[in-house]
What we know:
Strand order of the largest sheet: 15-16-17-14-13-19-20
CATH superfamily of the largest domain: Aldehyde Dehydrogenase, Chain A, domain 1
Amino acid sequence: MIATDIRTLSLSIGGQTVDSESGKYADIFDPSTGQVIARTPLCTQEEVNRAIEAARNAYPGWSNTPAIKRVQVLYKFRDLIDENLDELTRLVCQENGKVWEEACGDVLKAKEAIELACGVPTLMMGESTMNATTGYDTVLYREPLGVFAGIAPFNFPAMIPMGWMMPLCIATGNTFVLKAATMTPMTSMRMLELLYEAGLPSGVVNLVTCSRREADLILKHPDVKGVAFVGSTSVGLHVYQTAAVHGKRVQALCEAKNHALVLEDAPVERTARGIINAAFGCAGERCMALPTIAVQESIADELVDLLVKFAGERRIGPAYDKSSELGPLVSEGQRKWVTDWIEKGIAEGAKLVLDGRGVVVKGHEAGFYLGPVIFDHVKPGMSIGDEEVFGPVLCVKRVKDFEEGIRLMNANRFANGSVIFTQSGYYSREFARRTHGGMVGINVGIPVPVGIFPFAGHKQSFFGDLHTLGKDGVRFFTESKCVTTTWFSEEEKKQQKVDTWDGVLGR
């Protein structure tokens, strides 16, 4: 690829494409080839301020637009996503490295969340009581707050910023500033173009790319009412603490080390295939991957043999080749991060039964590929089995029974999701009741609920009190207002009665 093929990207502020004044850029790589395909600006603090100002200026008109009219824009946006699905899918492949089916799923999950937001006129409906006390009626309304910001990760460039964060925010009448991931901003940028094509008023959604120093301004800015974040636990805790100190709402979705418990009555081959899809889909770069299993000892050898067999059969190749089943990691830095974890697992004494290092894809030798990796006999206290690796690495822990398995799983500091594979109704119910995981799968390897339910991580996988999506999402982006009303009859007006607190309370 020659230099003239490298795109220079722009910011979107106030509905206008803006070239950054900073002169600083971050390279965007095609993970399948290892080549630079674009560069995105690392904008200035002043440009972040301008994006927030544009959102603030757009808020009065947008919040006063009836909800039923606001969602008409989202209906049109949804249709434009359908019309441009292949283009958006290819963008995800090119900048993130997901294989075609996974990239398409990324876009379609964004569309699912947009369809949820289209129901906001109903979801925002409040409550009322006539004659709450004698002669007085009370109505509860849900209202928008103002400007919200989203800080997005690299791993789902469509679903998270343009699905989880943006649609409910603007459907409820707020305006939005997106800090897109500098490694994967192109999908969000293109989707924002489609959103404005759908008729969104200028400034309702703005997009910047910047370093952490400029992003920190978002957490403290007085015009920002709330922040949605997805990323590491250390950064998420910083976002939560800093934004909360400055009086903002926060939902911070963080790391995970999801576990599955496999009992001896589970159908072994079917279970193994489910684990492979959950562990190695999206190259393991998702917070709802399944990187760790606790398997009952009586079937452990058989299950591990099948896992090694099925993982070794996955076709590794470039993301946009529709026959590829496992694509590259997002960057060379991410691949090094994961291989360093593999070295640590070996040093800790875990048994490496499948080693995906050294994989080379013919014709794409410079790509950021890493084959499936499986560790067996991972013991409690080994960091490879306790910490998030965020790559195609599966750890097998052996347990004697259900009780040892549930204790082992619940000892982990993360609790995004948890899974059990069994044919026992009793153990399924016990697992659902006792697991710490916020999203639970019964014979479901990736128990991500559809968008009408919240994405509900627990423990150090989430900081905040209102999750993304579902009714939680609507509540996060709105606040309640109670209005109490009374009216006087002609006779009462003549009497000029004066209310007292006792009268209002019906005493």
